[in-house]
TrEMBL record:
Domain of life: Eukaryota
Listed GO MF terms: cell adhesion molecule binding
Keywords of this entry: Disulfide bond, Glycoprotein, Immunoglobulin domain, Membrane, Repeat, Signal, Transmembrane, Transmembrane helix
Record keyword Glycosyltransferase present: no
Main location: membrane
Domain spans labelled Ig-like: 27-119
GO CC, any one term: plasma membrane
GO BP: any one term: cell-cell adhesion
Xref: InterPro entries: CD80_C2-set, Cell_adhesion_signaling, Ig-like_dom, Ig-like_dom_sf, Ig-like_fold, Ig_I-set, Ig_sub
Name listed for the protein in its UniProt record: Ig-like domain-containing protein
Length: 213
């Protein structure tokens, strides 16, 4: 083998080794976060594991970078947990609230040996029970015997919408019509359930309950 052939072979081998080295140095996700459904007050954990992490790892919430620290400034209920030497950068959200209902991404910044990578976008979906339901009855005008009136039960500030079942003397009422309106905050819903009843009623716990025999 002459000198020129040996030089070409050596150059090819070097390029091959560089390619192999570059592939092994490239950071990648071992596991990416998944969508979560969480009850209010519970703890949520979004998982993110990175192979050969060489760039800065941080989470993004609704497009906002949360920072690379394990304890995230400005977000006292948020922290990154897991063993970073094993590539674990899980996002933990304690005492989950409505404000945590958002989109999230795990991002790894660019480094000298690797391009930046971004996980798939996932959602934390909060389940929020309604506040105490109550009845609403128009009492501005005295009720007249023999006439029928609409009694409304309202289950406020739920996510998703509440399902209302009305009973009279232990028997489920039929003909109930439900609809939703905006709650006191964005993403919360007030569910209204209307039923038509006759004019006999009683007042209990600040709610008017229809009693038709």
């Amino acid at each position: 083998m002459d000198f020129m052939s040996a030089w070409i072979v050596s150059l090819s081998a070097l390029l091959f080794l560089c390619l192999i080295w570059g592939t092994h140095a490239q950071q990648a996700f071992r596991s990416e976060p998944r969508n979560l459904t969480v009850r209010m007050g519970a703890t949520a954990v979004l998982r993110c594991e990175v192979l050969r992490a060489s760039g800065t790892v941080q989470w993004v919430k609704d497009g906002l970078l949360l920072g690379p620290q394990r304890s995230l400034p400005g977000f006292p209920r948020y922290s990154m947990i897991g063993n970073p030497t094993k590539g674990q950068y899980h996002l933990q959200i304690e005492k989950a609230q409505l404000e945590d209902d958002a989109s999230y991404e795990c991002q790894v910044g660019r480094s000298e040996s690797s391009r930046a990578i971004i996980s798939s976008t996932v959602w934390v979906n909060m389940l929020i029970p309604p506040s105490k339901p109550y009845f609403e009855v128009d009492m501005a005008t005295p009720w007249t015997a023999g006439k029928k009136y609409v009694v409304t039960c309202i289950a406020p500030d739920a996510k998703p919408m509440a399902e209302i079942t009305l009973y009279k003397d232990g028997v489920e009422l039929t003909g109930v019509e439900s609809f939703n309106m905006s709650g006191s905050k964005d993403k919360l819903l007030n569910t209204h359930a209307d039923v038509t009843e006759c004019n006999e009623f009683r007042h209990t716990a600040n709610c008017y309950l229809a009693l038709c025999d």
